Amino acid sequence: MVTDRVGDFIIRLQNAAAIGKAEVSLPYSEHLFAIAQKLKDLGYLSHAEVTVKEGDEVKKTIVAALSYNEHGVAKLRGVKRISKPGRRLYVPSTAAHKVKGGTGARIISSPAGIISDAEARKTHVGGENLFEIW
Hints:
CATH architecture: 2-Layer Sandwich
Radius of gyration: 15 Å
Number of domains: 1
Order of helices and strands: HEHEEEEEEHE
Helix content: 25-40%
Strand content: 25-35%
Structural class: alpha+beta
Shape: globular
């Protein structure tokens, strides 16, 4: 049983990018799907969709496809989990600084939904500092 779904999600993405895998599959949750949609908007994923398996139980999964450049190198180079289940870290919009000189992004869970650091600074909204991706 996984206790940190966000941490599991980003590590699966990082591992898939490291070995050049095209897609990653993981259990569905609305929160993870919102994060996947934000990563798609930022260009780290080419698409993210929900698949449903019918059977004894209805089982939903998220299938996320990684983005690669024209040379076959993954756009996702690394991730760093910041807020963890044992230690939640929150950030105001004024402290949502750039990641890796602006080449990366900080993902924040706010009352306005899942947003990036640039959106937090623009809309003056803070929230839980989930992770950094570059």
